[in-house]
Amino acid sequence: MQIKDILAVLEAVAPLQLQESYDNAGLIVGHPDTALTGVLFCLDSTEAIVEEAVRKGCNLIVAHHPIVFRGLKRLNGFTYVERTVIQAIQQNVALYAIHTNLDNVHRQGVNEKIALKLGLEQTRVLSPKPGMTDVGAGLLGVLPSPMPEAQFLQHVKTALRTACVRHTEFCHKPVQTVAVCGGSGSFLLPEALRAGADAFVTADFKYHEFFDADGRLLLADVGHYESEQFTIELLYELIREKFPNFALHLTELNTNPVFYL
Fold first, then answer.
1. Which of 143, 140, 220, 219 is nearest to 176 (CA)?
2. Under a CB-based contact definition with an 8 Å cutoff, are residues 69 and 259 in contact?
3. Three-state secondary structure along the chain?
4. Other beta carbons within 10 Å of 107
5. What is the CATH architecture of 104-224?
6. How far, in Å, CA of 8 to CA of 15, rounded?
7. All CATH 3.40.1390.30 domain ranges in the chain, comma separated
8. Cβ 153 vs Cβ 173: under 8 Å
9. Nearest Cα to 9, choosing from 255, 246, 261, 238?
């Protein structure tokens, strides 16, 4: 079995051509024809993740976030990105990222995983790409029954295992139609409003952007890592379905760089 066999399964679900123009999804370090010894799934490739892969006998790391996002002009080990890439090359560990292409697919994508955790039904893409209905940013779904806003926020906090939910002022109406977007979702607020969402669950909203909800929906910012953490499970499940007896590992490390006091 070779690295390319794993990549074929992932790219059948989330083709690389569906990634955004600014992205760097795909095989970043390594060769697709390399014989595979094991796969480690994570959200972020870091030095510690490479060390974990080596300990577990894995020579392929499948991460959601690309370790090389902007161009590298040198490899001197002065940044964590450079050190991670150098370490991966030295240890013969391939690095693969499946990022906005996995964000942009409806079925088996990042946002469907969030929707399932929240118990949303009848999901559809919130902002479809031109000419497509099942490809695009965010998802819109409905809860089986309406929830009071305070109860909904507690449900989000529990279901998404987050230590903190930043949110806007209550609109004093039940929540049933919910928009979701893993990671930085502020660009989708106008779409959530147009779709008539009662709440929008996402991350990385800036202070002044909270005003843009304008009392029309409940905005819940759960944190970037927290919104995407279940992507690791998703990736593991996609490969385990095809290769149930192969050496597949979920990372045991929390790579969230944000801590809460």
1. 143
2. no
3. CEHHHHHHHHHHHCCHHHCCCCCCCEEEECCCCCECCCEEEEEECCHHHHHHHHHCCCCEEEEEECCCCCCCCCCCCCCHHHHHHHHHHHCCCEEEECCHHHHCECCCCHHHHHHHHHCCEEEEEEEECCCCCCEEEEEEEEEEEEECHHHHHHHHHHHCCCCCCEECCCCCCCEEEEEEEEEECHHHHHHHHHCCCCEEEEECCCHHHHHHHCCCCEEEECCHHHHHCCHHHHHHHHHHHHCCCCCEEECCCCCCCCCCC
4. 8
5. 3-Layer(aba) Sandwich (3.40)
6. 9
7. 3-102, 104-224
8. no
9. 238
Structure tokens at 131: 């000419």
As a whole number of angstroms, the distance between CA 116 and CA 123 comes to 10
How many Å apart are CA 235 and CA 40, to the nearest integer? 10
pLDDT (tens place) for every residue of the chain, 261 residues total: 999 999 999 999 999 999 999 999 999 999 999 999 999 999 999 999 999 999 999 999 999 999 999 888 899 999 999 999 999 999 999 999 999 999 999 999 999 999 999 999 999 999 999 999 999 999 999 999 999 999 999 999 999 999 999 999 999 999 999 999 999 999 999 999 999 999 999 999 999 999 999 999 999 999 999 999 999 999 999 999 999 999 999 999 999 999 998
The encoded tokens of residue 174 equal 């039940």
What residue type is assigned to position 29 of the chain? V
Q: Could you say which architecture CATH assigns to the domain 3-102? A: 3-Layer(aba) Sandwich (3.40)
Closest CA to 248 of 61, 32, 81: 61
| Separation between Cα atoms, residue 234 and residue 22, nearest integer Å | 24
